[in-house]
Amino acid sequence: MRGIVMALALCGLAATASAQDPGAPVPQTDHKTGGSPNIQMISHVVNHPGAWKAADIEIEPEMNRPYVYVSGFVNNDMQIYDIKDPAHPKMLVDWSIENPELHRGIGAMDGKSFKIGDHYYYAQSYQFMQGSPDAELGAVIFDVTGLPDPKSVKVVARINYPAAPGGFHNTFAYKHSDGRVLYFATVGEAKALVYDLAKVVAGDTAGALIGAVPNPTPFKMFGGGSYHDFYVGYDVARHRDVFYGAGLGGYSAWDVSKPEAPTQLFTITGFGMDIAHTFTPSPDGNYAVTETEYQYTPLRVWDLKEGQDGTRKNLDVPISAWTADWHDLSHNHEVRWPYVFVSAYEDGFQVFDLKDPKHPKTDGWYFTCGCQHEHGFGGNPDVNWEGNSVEQGAFGVDIRNADGLIVLSDMRSGLWIFRMKGFTGWDGTKIGTTNVSSVQDWAHAPGGMAPAQ
Amino acid sequence: MSRVAGWMAGRIGGTVTALLFGLPSGSGPYDMALAPGPVAPGARGSARLVFADSPFGVAATADGHLRYEIRITAKALPDPASLGSYHAFVAWEVSADLKDWTRLGVVTNGVSTVGIATLNKFLLVIAAEADSGVDHHAGPTVLHGSSPSTWLQRFLNHPMFRGAPG
Fold it and tell me: Whole-angstrom Cα distance, residue B146 to residue B151?
C-alpha cells in the first residue's frame, strides 16, 4: 500500500513538473502581424525611407482642422498630414532642421499643438547631442493657422536652454486655470521647465520661462534625476492644477495652481520604479497608469486617492498591472477613461480598459511594427541607432475626442490611423466623470475660474 | 526612450568616448571620427588635429586660440561629378551655430592635410563643391565630424553641479 501511495505521489510530481515545464521554448515573438476584429485599420503611411520613421504624434482636436503632426525622430524633421479623408492622409509639410545631416542626436521627438487667441500653433521638441549644432535647442514653434496652405506655416520662435544642452525630450501644452497657455518641458536637470507660450510666440522667449517643477525623487542625491515625461490636468473636485511627473527615481505629483511656486503633493517610489517614464491619471485624478522603461515590465495601475487627499506622502504598491506581452515593453499611452490607448513598441497599438481598475482587461490590438524581437533602438548614431532593445515599434498615440479617431506613430513603420468599434468619441461628462484628458479646451480655462482668452 | 539618458550623460573618457562616437579604440583627444553625408553613404574617414608650424611649443593665435592643421584620411569618396555639377571636395571649418564657414583646403581619397583651423570648437565638413578654389560653401556634405573640444561641457552643466532644482 505504501508503495502505491509513493507511486501516485511521484506521478503527481511528474504531472506538476510537466505543467511548469521550465524547458519549454519561449513563444515566438518576432514579426507580429494582424489585429483584433474590433480594431479597424483606416490607413498607413510609410513616412520615411530609412530604418527609423517616427517618434511621437499629435492630432489637432477640432474636426475642422484635420491635421496630424508626426515627429521625425532621427530624420530631424516634422511632417504635417491632412487627414480630412482619414483613409488617404496627404502630407502638407515636411519641415527639417537646417543642415540636418550635420546634426547628431535623436532629433525631432515630441510635438504639441496649442492655440492662443485666434492663432493655432505647433511646438516641435528637439534633442541634439553635445557637440552637435543646436545642442541647446529645445523646441521650434510654428504658426500653423493657415493650414492647409503649406506656405503659410512659419517658424515664430525657437526655445533654447543653454544651461543644460540636450534639448527637450517630452513636452505638454496645458490650458491653466488662470487662463495662461503653459508649456512644460523636460530638460537634463532635476526639474521640468514651465514656459508661458503667449510670451514665447510674442518673441519674449527669455521672459517666457516662468517656473520649474522640481523632481524630488531620490536620484537627486546623485545630482541627476531629470523628468522624462509628464501630464498636467485640472482636478475639478479639489480645485487645483496638478502636474504628474515621471523621471529618474520615480513619480511625483505637484500642485501647480501657481506655476511659479509649485507645491509637492505626493510621490510614487519603490523597487522597480527608478526608471519612471510616463504618469497618466484618470480624469478625476483618483487613479493613474504608469510606465517604467525596461523590458518585461508591465504598465502599473495605481489608486491615488490617499496621495491626493494628503493621507500618504508616498505610494509604493500598485493595485493592478497590464501587459500586452511579458516579453516586451509598452510605451506611451493616452487615457480616455475607462479606456487606455497604448503605443506598445513591438506590440503595436493596444487598448485595455479599467472599468474595474483592479482587473484591467484587454479590448483590442493591431500589430504595427512587424519587427524582429529585441532588434530595437541602441542609442548610438554611429551604428544607425540599431541595438538589441525592445524599444522599437509603436512610439506614440493620440486620440481625437470629437470622433474617437486614433492616430499612432511607429518608429519602424510610420503613421497609422485606426478606429475602435463602438468608440465614437470621448466626453467625460457623458460617462459620469470630468471632461479632463490630454486634450485642452483652449478657449476656456478649466474649472471656470478665469475668463476665456 | 530612457536609453537617451545614456548618451545624454555625455561621459568623457578614453574608452567610453571612443566607443560612443565611433573612434577607433586607442584614439586620442586629437582624433575626430568622420561620418558620411546622405549623398555619399559609403564614404569613410577620420581626422587628426596637428599643431601648425610655430616657433613656440604650441601654435596659437595672438588672442590665444590654438592653431591646427587637420590631417584627413578619406576612403570611398565618390567622383564629385557623380553628385551633380561638382569638381572637388573641399574641407570647411564651421562654427557650432553653422553661421561661419571657413575654407580649409581640398580633400581627396587618401591623406590630405588642410588648415589652419583656429576655432575653439568647430565642425569639420567636407563637401562637394563646384571648384577646388571656392571660398563659399554651397555643395552637399560627404563627410563631417566635430572637433574633440565640442564634447567639453560648461562647468555648471556637469551633473554633479546641477542637483539643486532652481
Answer: 8
Mean pLDDT of B128-152: 93
Write the DSSP symbol of residue B156.
Answer: G
pLDDT of residue A131: 81
User: Which regions of chain A are under pLDDT 70?
Assistant: 1-28, 218-224, 447-453
Largest CA distance in chain A: 92
CB–CB contact A228 B151 (8 Å): no
Predicted TM-score of the model (pTM): 0.88
Residues of B with Cβ-Cβ distance to A130 under 8 angstroms:
10, 150-151, 153
Q: And the C-alpha cell for A106? A: 535623436
**For A319-379, where are the E strands, in sequence order?**
320-322, 333-336, 339-343, 349-353, 361-366
Inter-chain touch A382–B22, beta carbons under 8 Å: yes
Written as nine digits, the cell of A41 is 485599420
Whether the CB-CB separation of A291 and A301 falls below 8 Å is answered with: no
Task: Verify whether the Cβ–Cβ distance B141 to A101 is below 8 Å.
Answer: yes
Q: Considering only residues B22 and A247, tell me which one the structure prediction assigns the higher pLDDT.
A: A247
Chain B positions in Cβ-Cβ contact with residue A294 (cut-off 8 Å): 2
Indicate the residue type of B111: V
**Secondary structure of A84-132 as H, E, C letters:** CCCCCCEEEEEEECCCHHHCCCCEEEEEEEEEECCEEEEEEEEECCCCC
Task: Please give the Cα distance from A350 to B94 (Å, whole number).
Answer: 46
Above 0.85 for ipTM, yes or no?
A: no
Residues 6+ apart with CB under 8 A from A278: A228, A229, A231, A246, A289, A290, A291, A331, A332, A333
